[in-house]
Every structure is written in structure tokens, then in C-alpha cells.
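Notes from hallway chat w/ T.B., transcribed later so I don't forget. T.B. wanted the structure written out for a chain they're using in a teaching module, and asked if we could keep both sequence and C-alpha cells in one place. Agreed to drop them here.
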Amino acid sequence: MEQVDLIWKNGELVAWEDAQVHVLTHAMHYGTGVFEGIRAYETDRGPAVFRHREHLDRLAKSAELYYLEMPYSTEEIRQGTHDLIRGNGLGSCYIRPLVFRGYGSLGLYATDAPVEAIVAAFPWGVYLGEEAARNGIRAKVSSWRAISGDSLIPHSKAAGQYLNSILAKTEAQKAGYEEAILLDQHGHVSEGSGENVFVVRDGALVTPGHTNAILDGITRNSVVQIAKDIGYLVEERDIARAELYLADEVFLTGTAAELVPVREIDDHPIGEPGEITRVIQKKFDDALHGRAEEYLEWLDFVEIGRITSAA
């Protein structure tokens, strides 16, 4: 992780090294926090945050689902993020907002513990690497199942839930694969450890639906829109494990990973990144960098000017 100068913490820009919490912070013990992964990209008009409002709306909804009262509005966090990008002199960067239950109680019903908010922004390359985006990755179907909606809330991007992803990712990496694909409680394809899954069969895109314990990915939704606009058929349905091996193409999507082709799953070759994957990947990259006029509304441009947060 590349250190920068500032972090936005509870409404103020503070020095990176001063953005600290108490060791008895509730979220450190129980995972009671919700977060987002967001990216900003250099464009001809300066830095632009991709689908910023949608990410912050999801952050607020995730917080509400876990009874965390947001201490700041989404607009305040948005403005704080703009200040942070300007203050750190960043162009392309990764952005991590986090809302969490802080220090004050260790009980499970801890509504007396304050809710805090931070935003960090720093340079971070594509999660699985540039080579992965070009040539694809090897993935493994994990022995760990995705957390069921009967136990937690897959639609909430909650910190504690990512222990499930850590188990799957670690298992895959130790076995020599770059990524894991989890099945849901019924044995259908759910998602990657940090990405949504798309399968191409007979010229159509298929992706798991909301009943398959997925996070409702913002990159996923962007790719669905792009694919439909290009003219591809997109279907949300249950996907059997064997369909991964029989697919013409497979790719993963997520803010950190962007769009990554999968060339092999469980030692079954899928092949080099296919035509449909490449077409969508190119259009998506154009959208991220402001080169696609039809998707400019997805970009929140950061204007150079006065910092509004308290310093």
C-alpha cells in the first residue's frame, strides 16, 4: 500500500499516520463496519470518480441494514472524498470509505458505541494485475460456500462478511490459483472472492442472480448495461458448476479487479480471452476513462479548487 499525506476522518482531513482508532473499537472485535471500494480515473477533464453516488448510496443502505446510523450524509462524504483527492494530489486512485462502530462498548447490542466514518484514497493498481486483465487468470471453485442470506446479508458490503472471502481466496492461492469462485448454499455459482461472475454461452451473457448470495455489484450492473447496449442477450439465473467448465468465455468484474478474463477453472481450460469479453472490456475501459460519451453520467468529476472539509 502506497502511503499518501491525508485521510478524511470524521469530517476532517488528518495526516495519514494520525488516522487511528482505539484497540477496543467495536468493529475490530466483531466486524461491525460497512465499506465501499471505489476508483477514480484520469480523464481529459481531470480525475473522475466512477459511479460515486451509486457507491455511496450502497454504503448508506449497507449501514442501515446493520443498524449503523450514518454520522455524515452521502453528500458530505462525497465532498470529503473530493477534498481528499485534491489534498493528496491524486489522479487515478482507489478510494475506501468505511463506516464502523467505534470505541465505547464491547456488548453485541452496542448502540451506545459511536459510529465513525473514514475515507482513504491512494494509488493502487488493478487488483489481480495488468497481466491478468490481458491474458486471463486461473480460478478454483472453493470448498467454502458463499454465506447464505439466511445467515447474513449478502447485499450489504459488511466488513465481517469478508472472512468468508478470505478463506476462499487463501485456499485458492495456496493451491496455485489466482482467484476463487464460490458456490451458494444450493451448489449454484455465486461469485468470486471479491468479484461477480459472468459466463458466455452461445453468444449470450449469463450471470448469477440476487438469490445466489451475490453482492449487487456496481461494476456488474455497469457491465450488464454495456452488454445490453451493444446488443448482447444478458440473462440472470442459476448457473451450475459444470457450466463454468463448458463455457465459451468466463470473466469476473469488480471495482478493484475491473474486468478480468478467466482462462482456466479447476484445471479445465476455458481458453484465451474471447471476443465478447474483449468487446465489453474495451467499452468498459472507455467508460472508466471518460472516452465513452454515452456513459459520462457515470463519472463524478473532481474539480480543482478550494478544499471544503475542516483541516
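Follow-up for T.B.: The longest strand covers residues 93-101. Might be a good example for the class.
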